[in-house]
Amino acid sequence: MSNVPKHITIIMDGNGRWAKQRGMERLFGHRAGKESVSQACEYAAEMGVEYLSLFAFSEENWNRPEAEVNGLMRLMAKAMVDEKPTLLKNGIRFRAIGDLSRLDASLVEDIRQTERDTAVGTRMTLLVFLSYSGKWDVLQAAEKYAQACTEAVLAQQPVPALTPELYASYLSTAGIPDPDLMIRTSGEQRISNYMLWQCAYTEFYFTDVLWPDFRRADFAKAIEAFQQRKRRFGLTGEQIIEK
Predict the structure, then answer these.
(1) pLDDT tens readout for residues 157-199
(2) Is the same domain home to 158 and 44?
(3) 114 and 189 in one domain?
(4) Is 18 part of a structural domain of the chain?
(5) CA dihedral 25, 27, 28, 29 (to 10 degrees)
(6) Tell me: the pLDDT tens digits for 43-89?
(7) Are 109 and 164 within one domain?
(8) Could you tell me the maximum CA-CA distance found in the chain, to the nearest angstrom?
C-alpha cells in the first residue's frame, strides 16, 4: 500500500457487548480481544506503520466494577509476559502512556521491564494508553509549563514563551507524531476523552465491528478509507497543489 498512515491509533471498544451477546461475563470479551491486539500489531508492522497506539484503559474505567478492573489488570500483567517474545521477534518497541501511579506496583514493573527489553526495536513502536485521559494529559502539561515558568523566575531567566510546539513537548506523547488515523470499533462515534490535543487534525474511522471480531481485513478497510481522503490541514486544495 502507498500513503500508509505514519501513526494509527485505535479505541478498542465492544468487548463487553461481545461477551454479553454470548451470555458471558464482560471479562470474557476482554480476553477475546487479546487476539485482535496481536493481529492488529502484526498487520500494522507489515504495512509499514511506524506508530500503533491502543487505548486500553481510560481514567474513567477505574469507575467500573472492582471485579472487572482487577480482572483487566491481571490480563494486562499476563500480556506483558506473553507478548514480549512476539514484540522482540518483530522488532517492535513498547511504551505505556498514562497516569501509571494508579496501577499496581507489580504491573508497573512489568511494564517498565517490557519497555527496557524492547527498546532496541526499530520496526514499529507500540503505544498502549493505560489509566489515560486527554484532560489529564492537558492538565499535567500545563503543570509542567507552570513549573518551568517558576524555575525561570527563580533563576532570573526569561519566562519561556508558550507556543503550540512548546506545549506539545510537555504532553505525555512528546516526541511522538500526532495520529494520522483514529479507528474506533463497535459503532460508537466519539473519542471519549482520548488524545484531545493530539487529534486536532486526525482522520476518524468508525466501524460497527466489535473489537474481539476486528481482524486484518477490517484494518485494511480503515487504511483504504484513509487513503481516499484529502487532508488539507486548513488549506485549500489549490494551496496544497502549489506545495
Answers:
(1) 999 999 999 999 999 999 999 999 999 999 999 999 999 999 9
(2) no
(3) yes
(4) yes
(5) 100
(6) 999 999 999 999 999 999 999 999 999 999 989 888 888 889 989 99
(7) no
(8) 65
Q: Which residues are catalytic?
A: 13, 61
Q: pTM of the predicted model, to two decimals?
A: 0.92
Mark whether 202 and 214 lie in a shared domain. yes
Start-to-end Cα distance in the chain: 23
Residues 6 or more apart in contact with residue 186 via CB below 8 angstroms = 13, 14, 17, 207, 208, 209, 210, 211
Q: What string of DSSP letters covers 186-202?
A: TT--S--S-STTTTTTP
Q: What is the full DSSP assignment across 81-110? A: HHHHHHHHHTTEEEEEES-GGGS-HHHHHH
Based on the domain organization, do 124 and 52 belong to the same domain?
Answer: yes
DSSP H/E element including 73? helix 66-89
Q: How many CB atoms lie within 10 A of CB 82?
A: 12
One domain, residues 86 and 190:
yes
Domain count across the chain: 2
